[in-house]
Amino acid sequence: MSTHPRLSYFLLTLTSLFWSGNFVVARATHAAIAPMTLSFARWTIALLILLPWVGKRAWLQRQLLRTHYKRIVLLGILGVAGFNSFVYAGLQYTTAMNAVLLNSFIPILIVLIGWAFQKQALSRASMIGILTSFGGVMLIVSRADWQTLTHLSINQGDALVFCAVVCWAIYTVLLRGLPQTMDRLAMLVAVVAVGWLVLALPFTYEVWGLQHHTDLNLPNLLTFLYVGIFPSVLAYLFYNRGVADVGPAKAGAFIHLMPAFGSILAMLFLGEKLQSYHAGGIALIFCGIYLNTRQ
């Protein structure tokens, strides 16, 4: 293996760690910071960091960005506004452990979307793997009580997090369609700018319409800084580079690390406990991933 993919794999590992921390921090502060406020503050900080650094590079590539504006807009809506808003809203109602375990379904969705829309081959083993992983997701969201499915009483937070999972899977597949000549930093700042603009409306409604105000105390400010730097600027930069270097399927596979990182962080900092349905669900998801990725 060359140094280049090794570096990408290391950066993708850090990405999973930073994102896992994002789930735990969002859950820890869910009573103090409203979800749209956290999402808007996160991307405001990220944009303030990115613009002075790479704004000129984005301007120099404005023609290329304009050529692919439809994909850039979709990436901003799905990967910045959609994913984060659904996650933060979901963490108002579900645990960080549930949310991070549900995210382990993303690699399977990436394969399924590639098959449905990009005509990628799907073997019988892959199909069995997808169904097995989906069974694991259902075990987690039902908390091993299948009557919750028949009565359509799935936890609201789990449903919102699953919407985030779908957003991120589509985002990953769309990333691969961008040309190699596009500067990844220029693309990132354009995508973040689109997402930030989309988030402005729900943030405004949350603050002035719903009267959900957030105190600017030290813990909340530190939360804003963490989510604005580590799971945003650094993680998105690392992830986008990983997708460009090793492809969406291999890059998406590093999301498998999030259940381990997220569960450990949730137990250490939130006092959450690993339940039997968590273990059973993640076992089914990993079995599905194995079936889907074996040669």
From TrEMBL:
InterPro entries: AA-Vitamin_Transporters (IPR050638), EamA_dom (IPR000620), EmrE-like (IPR037185)
Main location class: membrane
Transmembrane intervals: 41-60, 72-91, 97-117, 124-144, 159-178, 185-205, 217-239, 251-270, 276-293
Keyword vocabulary terms for this entry: Cell membrane, Membrane, Transmembrane, Transmembrane helix
Keyword check for Disulfide bond: no
Membrane topology label: Multi-pass membrane protein
GO CC aspect terms: plasma membrane
Statement: the UniProt record of this protein carries the keyword Plastid: no
Subcellular location: Cell membrane
Domain called EamA: residue spans: 8-141, 157-293
Name this polypeptide is given: Drug/metabolite transporter (DMT)-like permease
